[in-house]
Fold this protein.
Amino acid sequence: MAHSADERTLVLFNHDFDQIAHRGLYARWPHLSAGFDLFAFPSQLRLAWFDIERFAALQAVRARIQRCNAVLSHHEQFGALASALVAERLGWPGTPVRAVLACQHKLYARQVLQRVCPEANVEAHGWHGHHQAQSLPYPVFAKPIKAAFSTLARELNNEQDLQRLLGFGWWDSVLLKCLSHPFERVVRSRLPEAGSAVGMMLEQPIHAPQFNLDGYVFGGELRPLGVVDARMYPGTQAFMRFDYPSRLSPTVMARAAEVARRFLNAVGFTHGLFNMEFFYDEQRERLTVIEFNPRLASQFSDLYARVDGRGLHEVGFALAHGQDPEQLPRQAPTAARASSFVYRSFPGRRPLTAPTPSQRAVLGTAYPDALLVTYPRTAAMVERDHQWLGSSRHGILNIGGDDESDLGRRCEVASRLLGWTPPAEPWHPARAAPGPTINHTPAMNTSPAHPSTTPYGSLHSRSLS
C-alpha cells in the first residue's frame, strides 16, 4: 500500500520504538515529525510554558502548509492527546478528544468502568493531600491520576511509605507539575465531569499475573490484535520481560476483549489503536482492569511483526488515513515466539554500563534481527529513577525464537555480548521465573533515537522510565 509524497502523515513525538518502526515504513508511508524530548536538556525547558492546545493548533497549520493529510502519535504523555486535537481541528480520522481524556484520567476511567463493567474494576479514590495520611486505607496502591512511565506508582503499607514516595526535591516537583498541567487544562474545558487530574489515585492492591490486550477500533468495531504476557523481576513491581503470543486461554482473551468493548463504547472511543492492561487471577477466574491506553504500546509492535508478520505501527498509519488495517499486506513470520527483555538496576545495585559500539557491532553480527534500545543514565538520573520508579531501566532487547528454550538461549548469549550478564546477577531476564505482579503500568518510551546499527535497529534513548 504505497503513498505519494503528497500523502504525508504528521507524526507527533516520534521517538524510540516509534522512530525505528516509522523509519522502516517511510517508503510506504511518507511522514514528517514534530515534538520535543521531555526528559533531555535543553528541550525539556519547553515544559515550563508548554500548552498542548496551542501546540496542536500550530501543528495543524504546519500540516496544511506541508501537505499532510493525516496525523498520529503513540506517545503517552502528550502525543496521543495532541494528535486527537489536531485530527479534530482538521477533520481527519482520529480518536475523539474526550475518549483520550477519559482513558488517560485514571480515576475517571475507574468510575466509567464501575458503571459498565463493575466485575472487572477495583475500588479507587482520589487523594489530593487534603486528608491526613494516617487515615488512608492502607495498604493501598498509589499512582498519579494522570502520569506515564509508571511514575510514582507503587504499593504503600503505611504513612512512612507515602512520605518516602512523595519526598522528592524542588526540581522534581516542578517537573511533575509541568507534566500534569497541560492535560489538566484540557480536562477542565473538555471533560469537566472527570474532576481534577492533579493528585494521586489510591486503589485496592491486586496481586496476580499481568497481561496486555492490544487492539483497535475501526468504523466503531473493536478488533483485538493479540495479548502480550508480562513478567516481573521476582519480588519487585518492575517489568522484566514481555512475551508474545500469550499463554492465556482464548476464553480469557475473549472476556478481556468484551470488557474493552464495553468500556471503549462508554467513553466514545470510535477510532484508533488501544492497549488494555489487566490482571488475571486464574484461581479465582477474575479479570481486573489496570488501565486503558488510547494508543499503541510501541514496544510490542515488533513482537507482533515477528510472530504474525504484521507490525502494529503500519496499522497506526492505516487508521490515521481512515483505511481499514485488514487490507494491509502481511510479511512472512520470522519466529514462533518473541520477547522484549528489560534490563534494569535497582537501589543498592550497581547501574549497568552502556554497551560499547564494538559490543553493539558484535550483537548485530550474531543476531542481525535483534532490536536493541539503550538508555544512558547519569548518576542523578538513576537516583531519580529509583525514587520515582523503584528501578532504573538501562536497555530493552527484542528478539524472536523457535520456542521458550530458544528465546532463553538467545537472550543469554546476546546479553553476554552486551556485557549485561555478570555471573552473580540474580535477576537476569532470561533466567528469572515469573513473579507476582502489583498494579503497575508499562513504561513506554519517549526519547529521540540515534542512527540504527542493526537491520532492525539499535538506538540510545534518554527516557525517564
Summary: Residues 422-465 have pLDDT under 50 and may be disordered. The two ends are 35 Å apart (CA to CA). The chain has 13 helices and 16 strands.
